[in-house]
UniProtKB/TrEMBL annotation:
This is 2Fe-2S iron-sulfur cluster-binding protein. The lineage of its organism: Bacteria, Bacillati, Actinomycetota, Actinomycetes, Mycobacteriales. It comes from Nocardia xishanensis. Its cofactor is [2Fe-2S] cluster. It holds the Pfam family Fer2. The keyword Transit peptide does not apply. Keywords: 2Fe-2S, Iron, Iron-sulfur, Metal-binding. SUPFAM superfamilies: 2Fe-2S ferredoxin-like.
Length: 103
C-alpha cells in the first residue's frame, strides 16, 4: 500500500489481509493518520483519499462513516474514506491513499 503525503512524498507499507488501512498506516508509522479513537468510528482523524481504481473496488460507505466524514477537518470528496473502515485484501494490493493536510 502506498501513502501519499500532502507534499507529494510517498511511503510504501506492507499490508496484511484483514488489516484496516488505519492499522497498516499506524504499523508503518505513516504521518498524518492520527486515529484518535483507535478505529472505533468516532473521530474522523483517520480520513484518507483513496485513489482510482481502488476506490471503485471498495464497499460503499456505511451511514455512520458518511456521517463522520461530514465532520472531518478537511472537506471530504467522493473518494474520501475513514481508513479504519477500509479492510485490506489482495485485490487492493498496490492501493494508493492520500493523507489530507489536516485531520
Amino acid at each position: 500500500m502506498v501513502f501519499v503525503q500532502p507534499d507529494g512524498s510517498k511511503q510504501e507499507v506492507d499490508a496484511v489481509d484483514g488489516q484496516s488501512v488505519m492499522q497498516v498506516a499506524r504499523a508503518g508509522l505513516v504521518p498524518g493518520i492520527v486515529a484518535e479513537c483507535g478505529g472505533e468510528l468516532s473521530c474522523a482523524t483517520c480520513h484518507v483519499f483513496v485513489g482510482e481504481p481502488w476506490s471503485g473496488l471498495l464497499p460503499e460507505r456505511s451511514e455512520e462513516e458518511a456521517d463522520m466524514l461530514e465532520v472531518a477537518a478537511e472537506e471530504p470528496t467522493e473518494c474520501s474514506r475513514l481508513s479504519c473502515q477500509v479492510k485490506f485484501d489482495a485485490a487492493l494490493d498496490g492501493m494508493v491513499v492520500t493523507v489530507p493536510k489536516a485531520q
